[in-house]
Specification:
The complex is a heterodimer of chains A (571) and B (174). Chain A is built from 23 helices and 19 strands. With 571 residues, chain A is α/β, with parallel strands linked by helices. Chain A has 3 domains: 178 residues, Thiamin diphosphate (ThDP)-binding fold, Pyr/PP domains (Rossmann fold); 162 residues, 3-Layer(aba) Sandwich (Rossmann fold), CATH 3.40.50; 172 residues, Thiamin diphosphate (ThDP)-binding fold, Pyr/PP domains (Rossmann fold), CATH 3.40.50. In chain A, helix 1 runs parallel beside helix 7, helix 3 runs parallel beside helix 5 and helix 16 crosses helix 17. The radius of gyration of chain A is 24 Å and the shape is globular. Chain B folds into 2 domains: 88 residues, ACT domain (Alpha-Beta Plaits, 2-Layer Sandwich), CATH 3.30.70; 73 residues, Alpha-Beta Plaits (2-Layer Sandwich), CATH 3.30.70. Chain B is built from 4 helices and 9 strands, in the order βαββαββαββαββ. In chain B, helix 3 packs antiparallel against helix 4. The longest helix of chain B has 12 residues. Chain B is elongated and about 55 Å long. The N terminus of chain B is likely disordered. The chains are: A alpha/beta (571), B alpha+beta (174).
């Protein structure tokens, strides 16, 4: 069967089971948009290519399937660089297709030409510049294989215009061998010796802790984690990337560790004698000052990527494996720590002394952002998916929302990409139309990508957006207040400019506003009742509100600052 | 082909250097991926040699001498191994490796220095591969130390143009 390269590209995506592409056409990718009209694949037309990338990420994080985005060459391609970098940091499976100028024009500074494979070399797991139409099926099959196996990540396929316009004989690789990836071997054999050494460390531990990272979600290991944690009785902390992998409602869960982690989670790490790291990478936001991190702990490091071992902290035992298989092996070997009663007694004393607190809400406002999040959570349908941008609101959402299910927390972790929330929420809703999707956003973040609500409205994607509007770039403001003697430099945004309600309405969404506690409950109720169009709520929150606990940048986890109301008490 | 000159002693190669023999797919941009990775992660490349590997046109062999003080070798190898186009990595400690390098140099000669130049070349184990009216081109295929030695001994002449290929290496036998 003879097909154009463009037809082969769409047919290849169909072969990979793609149901949705997020994208925006332009000159170089134009040929591919024609056969798309005859395809079963749904295309979501975004308003900016960055939106397409973050939507694909949201889709991937909510479903576990790779997200797909398609854009044109030049600025279309550079506009999606931020989502690619974001997906790379968070190991999110993404396949991004970019148009390219015709092969004869490459290197001539042609109109809308840019070297996107060069630009994204350091922020993709791999990328391809397809040289002929006949090679398209192999590139697509290999891209999906690379994006979804081993440590997942973004893969970019750059397709010149003459390649999509020329003819090819249809074929599709049937086996991995045909992908022509001689240097890629994601299938690992579990090192039984390492497992045995890990079991020995666990068996002699008295203060063990399961340090659970995003790799646990990537390998769908939530059941294995629950089984292992419950059998061994060990306490669990879940990183920002792992929220939802272990139920927040579970009594063994100490919450999130790190710069804005729970006091008990942070301190339990510091005092542990054995850290079992499951798909986590000892990020600086978790470790604080690395030389002071968990000084008494031996380390069992489980990761699918061996380059993570000994990168930050020397491991006593490294197990190269996906988290699920490693947990099954440790469980099968009946790894069992010593009696943990004393450890739990210590932990529970920390819990009692330093619970997560915030100041009493003032009924006439301004609203407490933590109170707003708890009020939304209290009325949200079970299984609600929460997306967020980056900053104070993100930390509060992670702290105050109780996650009991995997893939219900969609956020930008490693890259910290402001503006991630709205498009990621849209992508999540496309992937999980059965779920309610809330975006907990900040006013600064919202202004970066809000135009995608036009996409949401026109495509019938009814997400709900809660703007915690404190009129500031809040996290930067918090640092300036605490570490720069309240010298506020370029952080004020205004609560009224733009008018978020009018803006929402102009984009075809319902716009609501709340200044008092009473209004807060009313608008949440209204928003919950709307299921056909997107809703945006402008919550007027207190700008002086800060995120606590906090470990200052570069400080030891031992110097965690608790909420002011808890200070002075003895530790 | 000149006889094997001064054999040097590779154990004198500073221990902080490591030799990575990397088999890669012979595809466009692969060298850029390797160089980019080193730059991105702050690893220093001491020398680099690339050529098609064995009889396969499909693969190339890249010999990289890395400064293992700029980053732990385990990190360098681990990150390099993640490049999809990298097929295999052999890490050779200098004491276990047989290293060779090619040096060529053009040395200006006149009646006053002709004898000294020839002396230096002979003593350094190099051979003359080209002779012009005012200069000679010499080459030395030998150990990096032998090349170092010759390079130092040529420093006393002015306007020497000198090129080195970077080293290639194989494990020592037995």
């Amino acid at each position: 069967m003879q097909l154009t390269g463009a037809q082969a590209l769409i047919k290849s995506l169909e072969q990979e089971g793609v149901d949705t592409i997020f994208g925006l056409p332009g000159g170089a990718i134009l040929p591919v948009y024609d056969p798309l009209l005859d395809s079963t694949i749904r295309h979501i037309l975004v308003r900016h290519e960055q939106g397409a990338g973050h939507m694909a990420e949201g889709y991937a994080l909510a479903t576990g399937r790779p997200g797909v985005a398609m854009v044109t060459s030049g600025p279309g391609a550079t506009n999606i660089v931020t989502p690619i970098g974001n997906a790379h940091m968070d190991s999110t499976p993404l396949v991004v297709i970019t148009g390219q100028v015709a092969t004869a024009a490459i290197g001539t500074d042609a109109f809308q030409e840019c070297d996107i494979t060069g630009i994204t070399m350091g922020i993709t797991k791999h990328n391809f510049l397809v040289q002929s139409a006949q090679e398209i099926p192999r590139a697509v099959a290999a891209a999906f294989h690379l994006a979804t196996t081993g440590r997942p990540g973004p893969v970019l396929i750059d397709v010149p215009k003459d390649v999509t316009q020329s003819m090819m004989d249809w074929w599709y690789p049937a086996t991995v061998e045909e992908y022509d990836l001689p240097g890629y071997r994601p299938d690992l054999e579990l090192d039984n010796g390492a497992v045995e050494r890990a079991v020995a460390l666990i068996n002699e531990s008295e203060r063990p802790l399961l340090y659970v990272g995003g790799g646990t979600l990537k390998s769908n290991a939530t059941h294995e984690l629950l089984a292992f944690a419950e059998r061994t009785g060990m306490p669990v902390v879940t990183t920002l990337m792992a929220r939802g992998s272990f139920p927040d409602s579970h009594e063994q869960h100490l919450g999130m560790p790190g710069m804005h982690g729970m006091y008990t989670a942070v301190t339990a790490i510091q005092k542990s004698d054995l850290l079992i790291s499951l798909g986590a990478r000892f990020d600086d936001r978790v470790t604080g000052k690395i030389s002071a991190f968990a000084p008494e702990a031996k380390i069992i490091h489980v990761d699918i990527d061996k380059a993570e071992f000994n990168k930050v902290r020397q491991a006593d035992v490294a197990i190269q494996s996906n988290v699920a298989s490693a947990l099954v092996a440790l469980d099968a070997a009946r790894a069992t720590p010593r009696n943990l009663d004393v450890w739990w007694k210590t932990i529970n004393a920390w819990r009692d002394q330093y619970p997560l607190v915030y100041d009493e809400p003032e009924s006439e406002g301004p609203l407490r952002p933590q109170h707003v999040i708890e009020a939304i959570a209290a009325t949200a349908a079970p299984g609600t998916i929460v997306a967020s941008g980056v900053g104070q609101h993100q930390m509060w959402a992670s702290q105050h929302w109780k996650f009991d299910e995997p893939r219900t927390w969609i956020n930008s972790g490693g890259a910290g990409t402001m503006g991630f929330g709205v498009p990621a929420a849209i992508g999540a809703k496309v992937g999980r139309p059965d779920r309610t999707v809330w975006c907990i956003d900040g006013d600064g973040c919202f202004q970066m990508t809000a135009q995608e609500l036009v996409t949401a409205r026109s495509e019938g994607i009814p997400i709900k957006v809660a703007i915690l509007n404190n009129a500031y770039l809040g996290m930067v403001r918090q640092w300036q207040e605490m570490f720069y003697e309240e010298r506020y430099s370029e952080v004020y945004l205004s609560a009224d400019l733009p008018d978020y309600v009018k803006w929402a309405e102009a984009m075809g969404c319902v716009g609501l506003r709340a200044r008092t506690v009473k209004e807060m409950h009313e608008v949440i109720e209204q928003a919950n009742a709307i299921n056909d169009v997107p809703v945006v709520i402008d919550f007027r929150t207190d700008a002086s509100e800060k995120v606590f606990p906090m470990v200052a940048s570069g400080a030891s986890n031992d110097d965690i600052m608790v909420h002011p109301s808890q200070r002075g008490a003895s530790r | 082909m000149s006889p094997e000159p001064y054999l040097g002693d590779t154990t004198r190669t500073p221990i902080r250097h490591h030799i990575l023999s990397v088999l890669v797919e012979n595809k466009p941009g692969v060298l850029a991926r390797i160089a980019g990775l080193f730059a991105r992660r702050g690893f220093n490349i001491y020398s680099l040699a690339v050529a098609p590997a064995e009889s396969h046109a499909r693969f190339s062999r890249v010999t990289i001498v890395v400064d293992a003080e700029s980053a732990p070798l385990e990190q360098i190898v681990g990150q390099l191994d993640k490049l999809v186009n990298v097929v295999a990595i052999t890490d050779l400690a200098p004491r276990d490796a047989l290293e060779r390098e090619l040096l060529i140099a053009s040395v200006p000669v006149d009646d006053d220095n002709r004898l000294t130049v020839l002396d230096t070349i002979t003593h350094g184990g190099a051979s003359i591969v080209d002779v012009g009216a005012t200069s000679v081109t010499v080459m030395l295929a030998g150990t990096p130390d032998a090349c170092d030695e010759l390079e130092r001994s040529l420093e006393k002449f002015s306007d020497v143009e000198l090129h080195r290929t970077g080293r290639v290496a194989l494990p020592r036998l037995g």
